[in-house]
Amino acid sequence: MPHISPRPLGYVEAAKEVRTIAAPLLTAAALSLTGVVAAAHDDNFRWPGLTLLILIIASLSFIASMQLHFYARQYLYSIADIEDWHGSDIASADPDRYGALLAQQGDDFSKWKKLNNGATGSFNAGTLLLASGIALALIPHVGREMEWRWAAVALIVACTLIDLAWIIYLYFESKQYTLRSAEREMRAVNRPEAERGGKSDQRGYYTPGLPTDL
Q1: Residue 210, domain member (yes or no)
Q2: Per the structure, how many domains does the chain have?
Q3: What is the dihedral of CA 142, 145, 149, 150, to 10 degrees?
Q4: Scanning 69, 87, 155, 203, which has its CA 20 to 30 A from the CA of 101?
Q5: Distance between alpha carbon 109 and the CA centroid of its chain, in Å?
Q6: Does residue 190 contact residue 206 with C-beta atoms inside 8 Å?
Q7: Residue pLDDT, tens place only, 173-199
Q8: With b meaning 16 or more CB within 10 Å and e meaning fewer, what string describes 55-75?
Q9: Is residue 206 part of a domain?
Q10: Does 133 fall in a domain?
């Protein structure tokens, strides 16, 4: 019974970098800007109340991402972890127990995946909300150099839309990557059948043929 692994294999480390480094820094940035808006005079911002609300929600989204990441991490482990805790010879010494542990690893991986998806969604929502809060804070109300402030707002809005498009692209690309990886693994598993006289269809899957050594 094979154990389940992330796709791609480096995804876990990438998620760790985002949730343990980027998320805390962005939370601090959102809360710092919240303090600036809250302490400033109402005339300094066009919509101070809405800006505060967006920034607070962004901060909570980043915090939720970190909490979900910490909670999900306990359900992610590999065969090496199983062998470290239960002995490197468990596969041969107690195959039934080893099979049960692999089955449990599959169930735990499903839990990790669900929680990690929630953490990813929270982080992505936080980045979009933080950018929106910054744009709201920069929208000019009164003062000088209005055109430069509007230019800054336009730039942030453009970057936010690009970020949204990138998030959507990565969502569908990750699904395609998983499908391609599964297809390659299935071809590799079925390839020996072709070497014994099997036939392949247009997608590269093999069906066993008659033995050639009769």
Answers
A1: no
A2: 1
A3: 90
A4: 69
A5: 14
A6: yes
A7: 877 766 676 666 667 666 655 454 444
A8: bbbbbbbbbbbbbbbeebbeb
A9: no
A10: yes
- CB contact at 8 A, 156 and 131: yes
CA distance linking residue 110 with residue 108, whole number of Å: 5
pLDDT tens digits in sequence order for the chain, 214 residues long: 455 666 666 777 878 888 889 899 999 999 999 999 888 877 777 888 899 999 999 999 999 999 999 999 888 888 888 888 888 888 888 888 888 888 888 888 889 989 999 999 999 999 999 999 999 988 877 767 788 888 988 999 999 999 999 989 888 887 776 667 666 666 766 665 545 444 444 444 434 433 333 3
The residue type at 41: H
CB 115 within 8 A of CB 44: no
Q: Judge contact between 43 and 141, C-beta under 8 A.
A: yes
Domain presence at residue 163: yes
Query: CA 23, CA 141: separation in Å to the nearest integer?
Result: 31
Could you tell me the residue range of the domain that residue 21 belongs to?
11-199
